[in-house]
Design a protein that fits this description.
Shape: elongated
Number of domains: 2
Order of helices and strands: EHHHHHHEHEHHEHEH
CATH superfamily of the largest domain: HAD superfamily/HAD-like
Helix content: 40-55%
Distance between the termini: 15 Å
CATH topology of the largest domain: Rossmann fold
CATH architecture of the largest domain: 3-Layer(aba) Sandwich
Radius of gyration: 18 Å
Number of strands: 5
Structural class: alpha/beta
Number of helices: 11
Strand order of the largest sheet: 3-2-1-4-5
Length: 201
Amino acid sequence: MIKTIIFDLGNVIVPLNFPAAYQAIAPMCGMEVADVPKKLGTTDLVPRFESGHVEPLDFYHQSSELLGLKLNYQDFCDVWCTIFLKETFIPEAMLVSLRERYRLLLLSNTNAIHIPYLREQYPLLRHFHHQILSHEVKMLKPGAAMYETALAHAVGAPEECFFTDDIAAYVEGARGHGIQAEQFLGLEKLEHDLRSRGVEW
């Protein structure tokens, strides 16, 4: 019997559009759009930020230097948050219904700039009983500490927990900790995955 349901955030609840951010940044730093992610990828700055080892202001300064951006901090944060699309993949009614009968957790690789924005722009996130965030845990999925922290906040044994994530490696990481997990490929499949485990909403 499932007692805890764990959701990833990006591309499970909230759709991501990284090209939108790259398109916004590119003209500000005289780059081609395709060169922005390439430049960011030349360092481990983004993973270190998302694992909580770089503070937001330091990330702003280092990213601005790396990309040649001349924005104030707030404008930088605004641009950094353009990756999120307005309409969610998961209806709020689903979370409301699940919360009434199950422990509801969020398990996400994210950062200290994105999460305040997400909480403000997507009120449905308030329905989670607890949020396990990489920059607070100081580790990224599929690191063991992320799943261990989720299980510490779950109700029931690992096999009584269900997790969905769009990234296959993160699903496998959860399974390695005894959690029932399936890759998110859309709402219809998620509903099927839940129903097959006796979970209706």
